[in-house]
Write a structure and sequence with these properties.
Blueprint (H helix, E strand, L loop, with lengths): L5 E5 L6 E6 L13 H4 L7 E6 L3 E4 L5 E4 L15 H20 L7 E6 L1 H10 L8 E5 L6 H7 L2 H4 L3 E6 L7 H13 L4 E6 L7 H17 L1
Parallel strand pairs: 2-3, 2-6, 6-7, 7-8, 8-9
Antiparallel strand pairs: 1-3, 4-5
Helix pairs in contact: 2-3
């Protein structure tokens, strides 16, 4: 499988950690690159931020218009929202990027897998299925796809992965209730979910970035 094209930003020489961050529907790897300086804190190790571009595919709910998407959207119902074939293809592509980081000297134990909206869905779905768990999962304004198969496919070590989830109370694209249902499912499986809710729509806010930075600070300290 060819590796996805990526945008990369390093905060220092010889990065000790990688943040693999997946964008939302219709965006690309450049979308969250400007967030790097807002997140950084004094004393953090050198980081490599990797922002991949999702493949271009037709999206049914957007009148079949081709755009960058991690999977097709055919239904707005939570249980049928994500096209399973596309989700599994994207999980495999993310796995390939994690393997590349391992080969570049950053093992999964020092990698945070993050994503916004569709990207967050892939981050959560990939993270709980890993045989070799990553250091942490981040799902922003998102939900867990393929919830009905998660229990059977998740691994004990992956379910022990610290997870940060955040959502806007006024989100018209991915209702907060979808994120809350996914949070509750993950918790029933034993996942330690650090949940945050903000008075915003389908976007990120300064308070959210501050809270995420504090959570990342704890991951680096633990690692």
């Amino acid at each position: 499988m060819p590796l996805l094209e990526t945008v990369e930003k390093e905060t220092g020489a010889n990065p000790a950690w990688t943040i693999l961050w997946l964008h939302g529907l219709g965006a690309d790897g450049h979308d969250f690159a400007p967030i790097v300086p807002e997140l950084l804190r004094p004393g953090w190790p050198a980081l490599r931020f990797v922002f991949p571009h999702a493949p271009v595919r037709p999206v049914t709910l957007n009148n079949g218009v081709p755009m960058r998407a991690w999977y097709d959207l055919k239904n707005l119902d939570l249980d049928q929202r994500a096209d399973e074939t596309g989700v599994r293809e994207s999980i495999a592509q993310v796995e390939a990027l994690i393997e590349r980081e391992d080969a570049r000297g950053v093992p999964p134990e020092r990698l945070l897998l993050a994503g916004f909206s569709q990207g967050g869905a892939i981050a959560l779905a990939a993270g709980v299925r890993r045989e070799r768990a990553v250091a942490g999962l981040v799902g922003l304004s998102t939900y867990l796809p393929m919830g009905s198969t998660t229990k059977a496919e998740a691994t004990p070590q992956a379910l022990a992965t610290p997870t940060f989830m955040a959502h806007g109370t006024h989100d018209p694209v991915v209702p907060e209730a979808f994120g809350a249902r996914s949070r509750d499912l993950l918790k029933t499986l034993g996942v330690d979910v650090d949940w945050h809710s903000y008075p915003m729509q389908h976007n990120v806010c300064a308070e959210e970035i501050r809270d995420l930075g504090a959570w990342m600070d704890r991951r680096f300290a633990a690692g």
